[in-house]
Amino acid sequence: MAVPMSATDSIKFDICCAARMLYRAGLSVANAGHLSVTIAPDTMLVNRFGPSFATLTPKDILTVSYGGKILEGEGMVNETIALHGVIHKYNPQIVAVAHTHPPAVVTYSAFRRVPEIYDQESCILAGDVAVVEEDYSGIASTEERIKPMAEALGKCRAAILPNHGAITSGPNIQMAMVTMILLEGMVQRNIAVAATARATGLTPQPISQENALQAKRELANIPFLAPLWEDFLQRLRQSDPDLFTVRPSSASN
Q1: Is the CB of residue 189 less than 8 Å from the CB of residue 118?
Q2: Cα–Cα distance for residue pair 94/72, rounded to 1 Å
Q3: Which pLDDT belongs to residue 140?
Q4: I need a surface site. Which of 50, 142, 203, 250 has the fewest CB within 10 A?
Q5: How many angstroms separate the CA atoms of 62 and 77, rounded?
Q6: Are 1 and 9 within 8 A, CB to CB?
Q7: Do the Cβ atoms of 87 and 98 come closer than 8 Å?
Q8: Of the candidates 76, 19, 68, 80, which has an alpha carbon nearest to the alpha carbon of residue 44?
Q9: What is the pTM of this model?
Q10: What confidence score (pLDDT) does residue 118 get?
Q11: What are the residues facing 97 on neighbouring strands?
């Protein structure tokens, strides 16, 4: 019988699940990227530097200050953890942040354009995607460089970083992870539509902003997150059984 664990332990497990889901979806690169959840003022849970998203377990999740000081846990964080700390600092309403390098988003980021909306799923992100105006100049580790990203996430749930990757946010790590998947799908659709337009000579017609926002409001009435998360968990139970040997009994379903 599993021993009940604390809410913090449950969040650590959910972070590991989200990381592995992003890996399984092909949205992570090597051991780059971070997931964070704020749990108290100036305090967040983050994955330590080293393991990739594919292998994270709860022992790899550290409690750190927004400045990157380790408060609990064993391991290290590199200076790019400042990305999360600054975002949380400027946006106390944001609980969870995901940063990774989804391949289609990285490709499309070179155009520095907000993707068009061509399908129903993309309507969920209508008006919620920003492109940070910056020239890539190395890792994001200073408050001065990260502040524009934090400001973008104060207005939108997803931010595209030119020639770099994406950041998504949410009220929990589940939504931040799903938003990253939705963003990658949105961009994949844009790339596919552009390729089809070139091949056929036809002119694509995106969904208007007005209609996309209406669909977004309608879709918001559907409680999709809980069953979708459970569906992802069912897949992980098959692909990553090792993770569930450490699952706390109080973890989210």
Answers
A1: yes
A2: 22
A3: 66
A4: 203
A5: 9
A6: no
A7: no
A8: 68
A9: 0.92
A10: 98
A11: 36, 169
Contacts of 107 (CB under 8 A, 6+ apart): 187, 191
Residue type, 14: D
CA nearest to 165, candidates 12, 37, 47, 30? 30
- State the number of CA atoms in the 13 A half-sphere of 66 facing the CB: 18
Are 100 and 166 in contact by the 8 Å Cβ rule? The answer is yes
Q: Starting from the edge strand earliest in sequence, which strands make up the sheet with 43-47, in order?
A: 70-72, 61-64, 43-47, 34-40, 96-100, 165-170, 158-161, 129-131
Q: CB–CB of 125/179 below 8 Å?
A: yes
Render pLDDT for 134-178 as a digit per residue (tens, 0 to 9): 766 666 667 778 899 999 999 999 999 999 999 999 999 999 999
Q: Which domains does the chain possess?
A: 7-221 (3.40.225.10)
Are 190 and 182 in contact by the 8 Å Cβ rule? The answer is no
In angstroms, the CA 91 to CA 147 distance is 11
Distance, in Å, from the CA atom of 107 to the CA atom of 239, rounded to the nearest integer, reads 28
Q: Number of helices (H) and strands (E), helices first, in the chain?
A: 8, 8
